Amino acid sequence: MSDQFSEQDIQNLFQQHLPPVDLPPDLANAVRMRVMDEVAMTFKAEEVFGQAKQPSSVLDSRRRTVQRTPAPRRSFVDAMNERFGWWRFATGLALAGATAAVVLLLVLALPGILPDGGSETTGTAGPGAAVLPVESVSGEAAQVTVEGGTATILRAGAVLGDIGPGGSAELYPGDGLVTLSGNAIIDYFDGQRTYLGADSRVELLVLTQNGETTNTSLMLHFGEARNEVNALSPSSRFEIKTPVAVARASAGAAFTVSVPPSKDQTQFQVTAGVIDVEMDGGALTLAAGRQLTAVPGQPLMAQAIDQGESGDQAVAIAPTETPVTEVLTPTPVPTYTSVPPTEAPTEPPTVEPAATNTAVPTATDTPAPTATNTPTPTATHTPTPRPTFTPTPTDTPEPRTVRLIVPHNGVSGGEEELFQWEPDFQLGDDEAYELIFWKPGQDPLTQGFGLALPTTQTRLIVDLQALDNRLGGLLDPGEYLWGVRLVRKSNPDERIEFLGGSRRFTYTTAITDGNSGPGSGE
Amino acid sequence: MQLLQEWQEPLYQYLCYALPDDEQAQQALGDTMEAIIRSLPQYDGDVPLPSFLYSLAAQRVAFYYRKRKTNQHRRRRNVSGPGGFRAVLHMLPQRYRQALLLRYHLGLSVTEVAQILGKSPQETEMLLAQGGRQLQDAMGSAGLQS
């Protein structure tokens, strides 16, 4: 043991003591399931956005990987059969496998079908354009039109696309809609419409029609939704759910629902008709001119709409009154960009001339003036100006920052959350963003932990609950700050710079809002 | 899919010995596979595919130890008992363990190990040399014969 191990010694040790490990069959199945989910999610987003910036190179690399074992030339169908044949062995996965195959097939075929995706976060519609491709969804669809700014549609756990000013798209049950800087109008059936304010997030839960009976249910996660229900048959339903309450409208109702980012209460204001508000098993009918704030644990109490504060004008339902201006004000956040301290040139201290001893004349009874001691001015020390140190200006690197877009400060959530930011710089070749959480008081650069793999995109959907399951003690319910860190793409452990952030986010366990909508739709 | 089927076994081999227990390795394998799916679109062929795939697995390992930092001392104490070579291996700092596993368990070249760990070949050589010495010391402390 006194001699140092040689390479061969170490190799022998590893061979001798670390035998091959068999992959447990149940693990293989579990991994397949996770991969299937990931394939569906990742490639669906890729398909929509053309996120692979160099699709050909990606496919080349995939081809390379498939060709690691040389094989005779086969038809495309054979190749696909072989590629996906593995999944057939998984009992119960046949359907899921077929789905993945379709998704992959689309991905493989996309470069030849779709134009180059361009920027990975673009896809913004031009004025009036119906831009978003219809996925394999069915049933009724609401029509979304964006006024000013942009809105984002989320579908099946992925960002489906942006809608630009004047753009429109279809919103299917299960879809989510996030208005960032823009406002959106959601048209359901004739005479049913929601004006969604900026900084809002909704999910279309239900949209069905059976003869004259329509059923519309929208979940407002946060933000403001003003609703007009001009037409509603007696057997139909129009409801707006929030994390704490639900409002059901009668025909002729016009009402506004507001949920703050904290999602812990909901305000309802009715300007026309009648709505029923339910919370915690209690219900209250709210007529025009009345409002209430639903807070869990507190009774539902209606009151007149405060003319002084909210007034008729503030609650009037008219699209023109929707604030069109950018509401997302960038929160100034401290950045950790190091700026070399500049030493301010200092003047040499100036010594004030010292006061000299001047005798004060003393009044005497004799009017004749008495000679007084006139002091001779004392020479004072006048410092000689010395050359002062003037620091040479150094090149101060441009601070790189990101503006956080969503979630807003103080938001809480426990399931899938969309995180989005906007950089003021171009990423370098080997740089990537890392979305991080950290605890108040911690240093985000060194102590923040990543919520996802580093990315070159500027938005991510994070399933916090799933992440919690994976991270264990690192992510527990509680208050965090979130922001974005710049890391080396080739070595994510190398943290280059904290790009700013510090918005509070409270991670909670799944919110029980009593609704059983079809998934989060994101 | 063939790619994933082909690589899950080798990646599992690596994760099994890079992480303290099988449960963690199994979790990390799933995470790695997901990461591969997500990262494939960014793979540009700059590094060989095995290095690319192992680097994703190595990230999971590093991530695990980062988040488990607070528990690491307890874990180290736990593994200092009987448990043989694997336990001794886990007494090493994870950067050494990762380098040694990649080089001597998986038989990768120094260049490949460097690519996976995101270090220069010189740094990797140094890691391997220091790791070898630490392994030798740890084995001596644990009373294991080479």
* Uncertain stretches of 5 or more adjacent residues of chain B: 70-82
Query: CATH homologous superfamily of chain B?
Result: PhyR, sigma-like (SL) domain
Strand content of chain A is 25-35%
* Largest interface, counted by CB within 8 Å of the partner chain's CB: A-B, 62 and 55 residues
Ends apart, CA distance between termini of chain B: 41 Å
Number of strands of chain A: 25
CATH architecture of chain B: Up-down Bundle
Give me the CATH fold name of chain B.
Butyryl-CoA Dehydrogenase, subunit A, domain 3
Structural class of chain A: alpha+beta
* Domain module count of chain B: 1
Q: Give the fraction of residues assigned to helices of chain A.
A: 10-25%
Strand content of chain B: under 5%
Q: What's the rounded overall pLDDT mean of chain B?
A: 80
Helix content of chain B: over 70%
What does this entry look like structurally?
The complex is a heterodimer of chains A (522) and B (146). With 522 residues, chain A is an alpha+beta fold. Chain A is 19% helix and 31% strand. In chain A, the strands form three sheets. Chain A has a 17-stranded mixed beta sheet that branches. Chain A has a five-stranded mixed beta sheet with strand order 19-25-24-21-22. In chain A, β8 and β9 (213-229) form a beta hairpin. In chain A, α2 runs parallel beside α5. The relative contact order of chain A is 0.09. In chain B, α1 (2-18) packs across α2, α1 (2-18) packs across α3 (49-67) and α7 crosses α8 (121-141). Chain B starts with a helix and ends in a 5-residue tail after the last helix. The chains are: A alpha+beta (522), B mainly alpha (146). Chains A and B meet through α1, α2, α3, α4 and β22 of A and α1, α2, α3, α5 and α6 of B.
